[in-house]
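We treat protein structure as text, and this decision shapes the records that our systems exchange. We quote a single record here, exactly as it is kept in our systems:
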Amino acid sequence: MSKNFYEILGVSRNANDDEIKKAYRKLALKCHPDKNKAPEAEESFKEIGQAYAVLSDKEKHDVYDKNLKSGSPVATGEPTGTYTYAHSFNAAPNSKRKHENPPIKHNLYVSLEEIDKGCVKTMKVTRMSMSTGQARKEEKILNVTIKAGSKSGTEVIYKEEGNEAREKMPADIIFAIVDKPHPLFERNGADIIYHVTINLTQALCGTTVHVPTLQGDQVTINTHSEVITPNNIKRINGRGLPFPDEPSRRGDLLVLFDIKFPDTLQQLIKEQLCEIHIPLIDSE
């Protein structure tokens, strides 16, 4: 009887797509014949590939589940050939395949304004080419699309666009998105943080603050009806960055108040403050 694909990948029947993909990647790396020289590694690698090919395809997945429920000894939709490692890792599934050149990695610095709207960055890279039969350096232009809301650390991969060499697969080029430091804002996921410094009088008596946004306009906050305490936060909904997988939704703009206390006070002012503070305490 065919082996249970869920058991092969070590996931439950209720596993979602991300869990199935993570399990496959982990096992494929562990059992790949180039890294694992055990006699059973190649066969295990094939089984892992077959299981993933079915469970990652919605139609085949549904057919497979129906066959399991009906007790069919062979699940339909199972691929007859070996699932290629190239599906996720750009490599063939057997040990006789060409070896890959190591990937070329670049940091791609992007401003928060560019992440807010999404953009295309034109990047010039240098690689080794075998186009003439001899290794030589050449420059290549790649247009890298940055999705709105992209997280720092997100990788944009260009398959086989890197260094070439005889008897080897061309290398991948990987651009890792890095947030540029911003003069006004900090980033926390999809939220944007803006710091406002006010003095003690403004904190106690109120003030008006004009808060800039990534979109170029300003939002006005009036605090005259309240007392601002240290580390007080005002949240402006929907004025942060878009969510990369749901660009119609946005994070928030968080306004953090930093209160600047005086280093010294004149004795007269101290006495006046003490007189004011007594009824405030009594009223609590």
